[in-house]
Structures are given as structure tokens and as C-alpha cells.
Amino acid sequence: EVMTSLTPGQMVVKIVNEELERTLGEAGRLELGRQSPTIIMLVGLQGAGKTTMAAKLALHLRRGGSRPLLVAADTYRPAAIDQLQTLGKQLDIPVYSEGTTSRPPDICANGVKQAKATGATVVILDTAGRLNIDEMMMDEIKAIKTRVQPIETLLVADAMTGQQAVRVATDFNNAVNITGLILTKIDGDARGGAAISMREVTGVPIKFLGTGEKLSAIEVFHPDRLANRILGMGDVLTLIERAQQELDQEEAQRAGKRLMEGEFNLDDFLSQMQQMKKLGPIAQLLEMVPGINKMAKDVDLSGAEGELKRVEAIIQSMTAEERRNPKIIKASRKRRIAKGSGTSVQDVNVLLKQFREMQEMMRNFKRGGRRSALNNLFSGRM
Question: What's the topology of domain 249-378?
């Protein structure tokens, strides 16, 4: 009965969606626990985001209960070692390094020894990348693989490079038998062509997607969700998971209670804005919501990001007392706030007016005037 109610267009989308899911394959899972410690080697060309992905993967695994150790094995690019150490310090994840004088296979072997000595359960090897694939690069990776026997050899590839990514995947797979793919910059690959092609030519599963610049912007690959994104059908499940992972649930409940009780102040407003920023750019979030994602493509959202930054700057230029009680903000305080935030007095006035209207609407809700509050909201008087 459901099938007969579908239009021809809906049937085509359904068939294409199912075929995409089949082509993308099963959701890949890391082989954790079969090796002690679990050794994961990351390989790929320079510029694919391999070093950053090593840190992202370490953070993801730590959130899952693992104790990761990062190993800086790129001795050809000193900046890569510095970058990994900086990221490790930022995430409070240990990094093993011997600088640029030791041989990469020795560094990796010593890194595994260090992991065993310190109780790390996962070792992530950040190997050297090159601008192009060459014999020396492949020989070195083969030597590392022979020496430490990683259970996972993951190719980190830039999804934006299209057919080049497919050739890279084929070459690496032929040389070192990769066990999985990690696609970076997938947020910029609107059609997901690289994901489909690389999965098809290598036959190995896609295990993770890099979806942004933040260190938390890594997702476990789900074929149905990527298929939905490719077809413009949104990805609500990933959005929910991201919210559960990034947002402080207790803080959100506390703020919600204060909002409904009419006690919501600018401190609460700033806190909620900063929490929402953790989820990613507005355009990327809207892309995950069915229906809204199609409308969002026709709207320039660059101004919205700028407006949020302006509001945040204004509130941060207020004193603690002013944020708790905006009623005390008169002309001289407005001038000081505008100067401190690099905005105008008019911008400050607009923010305060919008905040007062929001408070009034919530008071109407509290008093039981829900219908009146909604009428005001949708009539444009809010």
C-alpha cells in the first residue's frame, strides 16, 4: 500500500537511495581489542589533513574509553611534528616523538614500546605524506607495516580531489593493502562522488568522515546517512548524535528551566550561543535537516554567522552585572559596550530590544498566554 502511494519521482529517489547505500557498503568498524595495544597506521598524501585527522581520531577513541598515544613519524616535515605535539597538548593526549633524526620504522616501534610501558590501549601512527606517490614513500610505509604490524592501515584522503583521490586509493591499496578509508573535507563534497568511487575501486570500507575544521568534527561512517546527504534528504541522526556529544545536557536543561520561568538573562543567552557554535557552522547544520536543507541552499547564511559573532562580542563587552540585569544599561553604558565590541550603539539597542521581546514572550507563556505569545511571534511583532 505504501509502495503504490509513491509518485514516480519518489520511486526513483527510493531506488537510487537503496543503490547508493549498497554501493557505499557496510558501516566500517575499527578492529579494537584484537591487538594490545591496537596499532592504527594513517597513510596518505600531504595536504589531505592526515595529522589533524590523527588527533581527531585520538579524541574520538578517548571518548569511547580508549587511552590513545599519538606517534609523530613524519620526519620529512618538521612542522608536522610540531603540529601533532600542539594538537596533543590541546587535547591532553600524549605524543611520542624522536624529532627528525631517527628512522620512521624505529620511531613507530619505539612508540609501541612507549604505549606498552604507559598503559596506552591505542597507538596512532602519523606517517609521512608526499605531494605525489613515489617509490621511496611506499617502501617506507611497507617497512613500518612489517616492523609494527598495525591491525588497521587507514588511508586519509581529501574528498574534494575527485578522481585524483580514486587514483591515490588504488595505488596505496596495491602497495600496502589498506584496511579502510577516512575521507576528509566531506562537508565540502556536496555530491559525495569521491566516497562512492573510492569505495568501489578499493573494496575496503569507509570508516570515518572528516566533516569540518574542529577537532571534534569526525563521524563514524554510516552508508544510509551519507546516501541521504547526497540526495539532499538531510541527516537528522548525525545532528542528534553531535548535539548529545557536544552540548552540556545539564546546562541546557538548566537554561531551559530559567527561560520558561522568566529568569533567563544575557549570561544564559551567551552560554547557549557558545554551546550551539560547538555543533558547527549554521549552513552545515541546516544541511542535515530534511526540507530546510533545500531552502538553505537558496539563502546566503554568511551574514548569519557574522551576526552571531557580533552578538557574542556585544554581550562579552558587558559587565557581569549588566548581563544579569540589562535594564541598567543606559546611554553611557551603551556607548562603552559598543566601543568595546567594535559595534555601534544601534547594534546594542537592537540586541537589547530583541532580548526584552524574548523575555516578554516567555512571560506570556508562563502566565498561560501561549496563544497570545504565538500570535505575536508569527505576526512579526516579536
Answer: 434 Repressor (Amino-terminal Domain) (1.10.260)
